[in-house]
Amino acid sequence: MNDTFLRVCRGEEVEYTPVWLMRQAGRYLPQYQAVRANVDFLTLCKTPKLAAEVTLQPVDILGVDAAILFSDILIPVEAMGLRLAFSEKQGPVISEPVRNRSAVDRLIIPDAEEDMPFVPETIRILRKELENKVPLIGFSGAPFTLATYVIEGGTSKNFLHTKKMMFQHTGVFSYLMEKLTVTVISYLSAQIKAGAQVIQLFDTWAGVLSPVEYKEFVLPYVKKAISELRKYGVPIIYFTNECAGILKEVRKSGADVIGFDWRIDISDAIKKVGKNVVVQGNLDPCELFLSKEKLEDRVKDILWKGESAKGHIFNLGHGVLPETPVESVMALVEAVHKYGKKE
Ligand code: CP3
């Protein structure tokens, strides 16, 4: 197996900078669209054979150095008892958002093997399929990002319901965060037991908070999840979007690898997190619309700057956009492999 990615996660020396891409499986790939033409998104996530098939597509087509389980961060939220739907226009929709204590009371802590058996089953299929290929990343939404969906009922602009609960009903907010944290720990434990070799926590919305709010209302739960998952000895990646303002706090999370979005220069980000962590990132997904030459220049710049970290995994600063030309994504992976070789 190509274990370059695993070795970088552990802080070991490697021959080249490994690359994988958030949302590497998805609508920009015609092969994904072909599978999706016959099933809706949630059914795809819940059908292990199909979820495994689309997980493998970018590994075979792009030659990335890691596979990421095909699923969604909101799958465990549905298993907690909420009704979830994906609409073409609005993205995820939770029909009865959680806004008070009794709604939090009603949330159940799911058992992944019982309540989401398709997730460990997909992982078991994938580990067999990936045996001679690349490592498998499992993932979960981080507690705060899950809380925003649960409270807002979907994606939001100002996160007012979330912040109002945080400020005006702090006890209810903490109670919800605790339940989500226990869920995340048990969900990721099940993924690791099924065979996930690395795990990533996605904190897509952490950057909508001030550093002071992040430190008080988010960091303790992330730290708890990471410290509980430590015992498995599997590397833990923590990605926060719009991270620039909160990185000094994010570094205290205890993660092995910290992922950055593209809005910060990677050199500055590395200075902020220090020498004890491996970093991941951070090309702007829209830069995949640059000419091949300009894209290569951006790749070289990030690779060069990434050298100052303890270790560097190349990635985008957020997910691949559905409109992205496949050839650009292929050119990106090729460029990272070409220019990321160490002497
Ligand atoms: O990265 C991968 O290739 C693995 C699969 C993956 C998906 N979602 C598939 C998906 C992962 C890791 C996620 C995580 C996820 N889901 C996050 C965190 C990362 C991020 O993007 O910030 C969030 C916030 C979600 C919630 C979510 N799921 C939204 C907001 C949407 C709608 C927007 C969109 O792109 O359609 C989804 C749907 C979704 N998740 C799709 C895919 C491939 C598109 C569904 C389709 O095929 O129609």
Question: What's the short story on this structure?
Answer:
Helix content is 48%, strand content 12%.
Structure write-up:
The protein is α/β, with parallel strands linked by helices. Helices cover 48% and strands 12% of the residues. The chain has 17 helices and nine strands. The structure holds coproporphyrinogen III. Residues 22-27, 36, 41, 68, 70, 72-74, 86, 91-92, 139, 155, 202, 204, 241, 319 line the site of coproporphyrinogen III.
What is the β-strand count?
9
Structural class of the secondary structure composition?
alpha/beta
- Helix and strand pattern: HHHHEHEEHHHEHHHEHHEHEHEHEH
**Secondary structure tally, helices:** 17
What are the SSEs and their pairings?
Elements: H1 4-9, H2 30-36, H3 41-46, H4 48-62, E1 67-68, H5 75-79, E2 84-87, E3 91-94, H6 101-106, H7 112-115, H8 118-129, E4 136-141, H9 143-152, H10 160-168, H11 170-194, E5 198-203, H12 211-217, H13 219-229, E6 236-240, H14 247-250, E7 257-259, H15 266-273, E8 278-283, H16 292-306, E9 312-316, H17 326-339
